[in-house]
Amino acid sequence: NFAVWSPKRDLIALANKVGEVLLHRLANFQRVWSLPPNESTGKEVSALAWRPDGKILAFGLADTKKVILCDVEKPESLHSFSVSVPLTFMYWMEVTEENSVLTSFYNAEDESSLLLPKLPALPKNYSTTAKIFSEEKSDEIMKLMGDVRLNALVLGGIDGFIEIYAYGMYKIATITGVTGSCLALCLSSDLKSLSVVTEVDNGPDTDSEITYFQMDTSLLSTYLPEVTRMARKFTHISTLLQY
């Protein structure tokens, strides 16, 4: 059904009709791992996207309306959340804009390491809900956040649904004014513009219509340092709450 190449490594992620997510090496097509479908997460994969650094794979499930963030090293869910409609497209981008305010922010020490000391690792078999704190996964919080530089997961679905999640976890925008089912979308690297292609169903007797929208998202760009800081705090706190 779906196939997406890793932006950084010799890997390709696949999703088949039974809801299985597979990771293969491109060179010899050797299987790295497979994640079978289950009732709790869902069985109908409708979208796939790699984080720009290639360390996290996101996929959407249409039957349960869930988004799963999966570690590239092991077929395990690091984080999941629900959306209101089935997804049809996902796009994960990284912000490349540079300015003096951002540079000073990126270079600033994160005070959370002073106020929130690192929690002790839990035994491997302690709890399925606290896997990111197990002895062998002590750095999973940082893996979820990735680099200090902001990255954003953009979700598109039916009925004009579009949402943007900083670091794939913290919702920073809901886009309105779009109609139809999302076929493709792209958020510019400076966060100033969102391009969307949708398919609008005009009824049984009329051909569907392909429509292109270009949305102004410069508000996100204007407040990029604040959005980045808030998103990192949210990601850190939400993972700590699972301890």
From TrEMBL:
GO CC terms in record: anaphase-promoting complex; nuclear periphery
Organism expressing this protein natively: Micrurus corallinus
Pfam families cross-referenced by the UniProt entry: ANAPC4_WD40
Keywords carried by this UniProt record: Cell cycle, Cell division, Mitosis, Ubl conjugation pathway
Keyword Cell division listed: yes
Superkingdom to which the source organism belongs: Eukaryota
InterPro entries attached to this UniProt entry: APC4, Apc4-like_WD40_dom, WD40/YVTN_repeat-like_dom_sf, WD40_repeat_dom_sf
Keyword Protease carried by entry: no
Gene3D superfamilies, sorted: YVTN repeat-like/Quinoprotein amine dehydrogenase
Domain Anaphase-promoting complex subunit 4-like WD40: 4-94
Gene Ontology BP annotations: anaphase-promoting complex-dependent catabolic process; cell division; protein K11-linked ubiquitination
Full protein name: Anaphase-promoting complex subunit 4-like WD40 domain-containing protein
